[in-house]
Amino acid sequence: MTSPRQDPLRDPRFFADPYPTYDRLREGCPVQRIPTGSGGREAYLITGHPEAREAFTDPRLSKDTARFFAGLASTRDLHPAISRTMLASDPPAHTRQRRVATPLFTAGRVRELRPYITGVVDDLMSTWRPGTEVDLVADLAVPLPVTVVCELLGVPESDRATLAGWSHDLFDATDTDRVDRASHRIGDHLTRLVDTARATPGDGPLHSFLRGCDDGGLDRDEIVSLAALLLVAGHETTTHFIGNAVLALLRHPEAFDRLCRAPDLIPGALDELLRFDSPVSVATFRHSTEDLRVGGVDIPAGFPVLIAPGAANRDPAVFPGPGRLDLDRDAGGHLSFGHGIHRCPGAPLARAEAEIALRALVTRFPGTRLAGPPESPVWRRTRLTRGLAGLPLALA
């Protein structure tokens, strides 16, 4: 196994198109030790599908970031509500928080939300007209999931745009100070919302969420942390899901036209769209608590381990011709929502939002095409998620 001398996940070419990098690394070895960040730190990066699936369920790979960084010198200043979320914990703390979060996203609850989601899409697209241009990201992919998750949590309408902006800043791979500031703004704001709701009896969504947290035995810090996670993860990746899916379809006009002719195929196409260009490129932090072996590679105790769903979803050993968008492919084994106990509980809601948004687009504007060259969209500079900064569309 040979290790790259530069962090391959911070190369500007990676942000624009990570798949050549992933392919090169996977072909060398599906589990590689790479430099990461600054200060000579290293991590193991997993790019193969079987290896990623195995790692997702290995209890020796901990998500307890506080445990890993205890005693290590760090210049970071993340708010505890961001640094100690359910995604940064192991059982039993993880189990308690997940037990509270899961009921918010059951199939039945999402079914109840579908009319509301449809209404939000209708409102956002009400001013769209054939012959005009819109930015799919700014005009639909961002406000739709923000509105839905804020409604679910009872966040006031006046706060939603501000919180969405701070959430956007959290994923900036080039400015850690900006990330840290955003974490405090989100954590402090949600703490005030929770404390205000506690002091003001009511029966709205936020009070319902708090009752569920109380029943689950969560303390104040855990409640704020869970609210932050649901807010951030509940819209950021769905925004990228919608944007990436539309771009993929418009870069493959025959696939887009097929869905225009048969919109009922959309639910079955979502897995392939998720596989083709995953909104989660690299999963959140894990570290080895003891020596282990993954994909024939020994990983010593005490190392960060990065699992890359974006790479695993393009593993040709599992998905032949992985760079081809094939709406007839059985892509149900993709890892865009993770796998194991940390699999995204909000997956049913994300799928519903993407389905409803795509159906509205193909039925109302079946002649839509990209407003610029297919290679022109600008990608956000973040390695955890993969998403567009904007996507201009010519409606028709």
Write up what this structure looks like:
- InterPro entries: Cyt_P450, Cyt_P450_B, Cyt_P450_CS, Cyt_P450_sf.
- This is Cytochrome P450.
- Helices cover 50% and strands 8% of the residues.
- It contains 17 helices and 10 strands.
- A 5-stranded mixed sheet has the order 1-2-8-5-3, sandwiched between helices. A 3-stranded antiparallel sheet has the order 4-10-9.
- Strand 1 and strand 2 form a beta hairpin.
- The N and C termini lie far apart (51 Å).
- 43% of the residues are buried.
CATH topology: Cytochrome p450
Provide the succession of SSEs.
HHEEHEHHHHEHHHHHHHHEEEEHHEE
Strand order of the largest sheet: 1-2-8-5-3
The biggest sheet, with number of strands, parallel, antiparallel or mixed sense and barrel status, is: 5 strands, mixed
H/I helix tally: 17
By CATH's scheme, which homologous superfamily applies? Cytochrome P450
The low-confidence runs, each spanning 5 or more residues with pLDDT under 50, are none
Class per helix and strand makeup: alpha+beta
Distance between the termini: 51 Å
Q: What percentage of residues falls in helices of 4 or more residues?
A: 40-55%
- Bulk shape: globular
- What percentage of amino acids are in beta strands? 5-15%
Chart the SSEs and their pairings:
Layout: H1 12-16, H2 19-28, E1 31-35, E2 42-46, H3 49-56, E3 61-62, H4 65-69, H5 80-83, H6 93-101, H7 107-124, E4 133-135, H8 136-141, H9 143-153, H10 157-170, H11 176-199, H12 205-215, H13 220-251, H14 253-261, H15 266-276, E5 286-288, E6 292-294, E7 297-299, E8 304-307, H16 309-312, H17 347-364, E9 369-370, E10 392-394
Parallel strand pairs: 2-8
Antiparallel strand pairs: 1-2, 3-5, 4-10, 5-8, 6-7, 9-10
